[in-house]
Structures are given as structure tokens and as C-alpha cells.
Sequence to fold (295 residues):
Amino acid sequence: MRGGLNEIVAQIGLELRKSDDCGLSYMVQFSDWPAWAFMWALAAAVFAGCKWLTFVTCDRRGVAWTRQAAYLFSWPGLDAEGFLRGPCPRLPKPAEWGLAVLQTATGALLIWVVARQTSVELPLVRGWIGMIGIVLSLHFGCFLLLSCIWRSLGYEARPLMNWPILSNTLAEFWGRRWNTAFRDLTHRFLFRPLTKRCGPRWAVVGGFLMSGLVHDLVISVPARGGYGLPTLYFLLQGSGVLLESSRSARHSGLGRGFVGWLFTAVVVGGPAFLLFHPPFVERVIVPFLETIGAF
Fold:
């Protein structure tokens, strides 16, 4: 079955044809793109759709067009109401500026120094090092720097990463500390409506299932392999959230202190190979790192 899916995806091409008076035709086949370019295009398309959804469903009356444009094109967060109408935020401290620069530089070091020095006979290791560098420099570095810039200008632009390493529960990790932009979106458009319809437990399952399907689209489809593994990863996360909220789990210490922190770290990090599976690392990340000169 998996091989059949691979063959189908390999043959999928989106042809956009446009003919003018001279009879010229233009055709773009996504199947001919490098896998990493297809991945970034899918990620950009998904993000643009989410951004537009938050934009058109918030009250923009009286908001300057420059502020609206800043939200659409210069801020990766998805809290449109906060950015467009939020109160004047807490100004960033000097330590936050320094942390943003440090994390950006550390990510670049992993990409262009550490990954390059790793043996070519270990492509998965090289890919993982480079991938961690990308996340560190982009999500923890550049996005924090943008948050500092916008907050210093008086905009409500909360950091998207809120020290996830300090999480004592999975609910805290996914709900308040990791990529709060996606959390804002799913909480508003998915979790709250599902909670009203079928209760909080099924809302948790539905939220993590949707997250898994989106990651499968962006990760597995460009890699042409590993289908279903990202979805399985997020279903495991949802199961962990439900488990730690049970009465027996609370009695055993989950949800607080070192035990809760360790449980969170193991559940988030342990099955990470399902999320970023080998086909993705070898066929998407490694070629992308080669393209940007990491190797």
C-alpha cells in the first residue's frame, strides 16, 4: 500500500496553463520541483491560508492599513485580534534581544559548522543536526527578534516560543509554550467548536489529529514516503495529554515537578523520529542543506 501511494504521489503534477494571443503556454509541475522546494511551497500555502482566515474573521474597522499589512506580511503569529487591536505590550528586555541573537547564531553554527563536520556516511545525523539548527535559528531566533521589534514599536506580538523546555505537562507544552501561533489558530477554530459539540476529550483528539494531517501534508508528501507517521506522532501526543489528566496519573505525580517534566520530555522527544521520519530527513532536509551550502 505504501509503495502504491509513493508511485501515485510521484506522478502527481499540477499543470497551470495560460495561453495568450501568441499561443504560448506555461506549465508548472510540482512533481519536477526539488523536494525541499515543494515542502516550503506547501508550508507557505498552509500558513498563508491560516493567516488569511484569522485576518478576515477579526474586526478590522478603524485599523490603519499599514498595521494590517504588517500583520499579514511581517509577523508570523496568528493572533490577528491581538496584533491589530491589542494593548501596548511589555517592552522587550535587553536579555530578550540578546537571546534572539544568540539562538539565531547558534542555529547557524549547527547548520554551517557542526553539520558540515559530521561524517557524510551519517546522512540522518547530518540532517537532524541541520534541522535542529533551522528550527533554532528560525523559530527561536528570528521569530523572537521580530517579536522584540514589533513590541518595541507598540504592537502586541508575543514570542511564539515560550520556553517549552520548562513544561511540566504535555498540555502546557502544546497549549502554552510551543508555537503559540498554531495554538491560537487551533484553539479558536477547532478546539472550542469541537468542545461545544462533543466535549473536551474528543476536542483534544480532533485537534491533534488535524495537526498530524497538516504535518503529514507538509512533511510526508514532499518526501514521498513515511505517510501517516506524523499523524501517528500527534495522536500519541493527544493520548499523552489525556493520560496525564486522568486521576491515576495525577496521583502518580504526572503534571508537576520533575516527574511531569520527564514524562513530557520523553513523550515529546522520544517518538520524534515519527514526525521527522527518515524519508523526510534524507530526501528533503539533506538536499536543502546542500542547496544552502551547509555541506
In short: The radius of gyration is 21 Å.
